[in-house]
Amino acid sequence: MQALAEETGGRALIVVDVQNDFCEGGSLAVEGGAEVAEALGAYVREHRDAYDRVVTTQDWHVDPGDHFSAAPDYAHSWPPHCVVGTGGADLHPGLDAGHGGGFVEAVDVVVRKGEHAAAYSGFEATTPGGEPLDGYLRGAGIAAVDVAGIATDHCVRATALDAAAAGYSVRVLLPLCAGVAPASTERALSELREAGIELVGDLV
Predict the structure, then answer these.
(1) Which of 42, 101, 120, 124 has the fewest CB atoms within 10 Å distance of its CB?
(2) Has residue 156 been placed in a domain?
(3) Is this model's pTM higher than 0.90 or not?
(4) Domain count of the chain?
(5) Is 63 a catalytic residue?
(6) Looking at residue 21, which CATH number applies to its domain?
(7) Can 155 be counted among the known catalytic residues?
(8) Range(s) of the domain holding residue 176
(9) Which ranges of the chain have pLDDT less than 50?
(10) Strands, E, within the chain: which ranges?
């Protein structure tokens, strides 16, 4: 695949929530999640030099209150997922599978969100040192972000919208995303377009 960014200055890639629980076999699986994991791993391996920073986000739940439910509505409440200390919270191994590894080494920082409350956007996440994602990116001189990962209609959507609201130039890399459902994904894409976010459908 051809790198999207002609210039590397000031651009970051945000890989959103590519975790075991959001891929096939997980507690809140999104169809196509494992395929996205492998595609993202390959993309990062091939095009790491196109980005000044690569960031990955993780849902990281300890006790998120009514975000978890035994009778979830799949809009505001969900089955337990990405619980700290479980394998479901780990990054999906497909990110490193089939192309010689290298994804973890390519990531500059992992930011985590949602320990004690619902959190969808990567801009609600913090670095291991407690710095918000926005502060981390601004400190690195980032002005533009590419967003990819899981799920298009939830955490990818929220991350991209928050990035645009914060003043970043934003692209969503659709071939490197997976959505929960067609109808909600289409609604999310319409909302992203209306926010002035570029939707990239072809990475070749």
Answers:
(1) 101
(2) yes
(3) yes
(4) 1
(5) no
(6) 3.40.50.850
(7) yes
(8) 11-200
(9) 1-8
(10) 11-16, 53-59, 109-113, 144-150, 169-178, 198-200
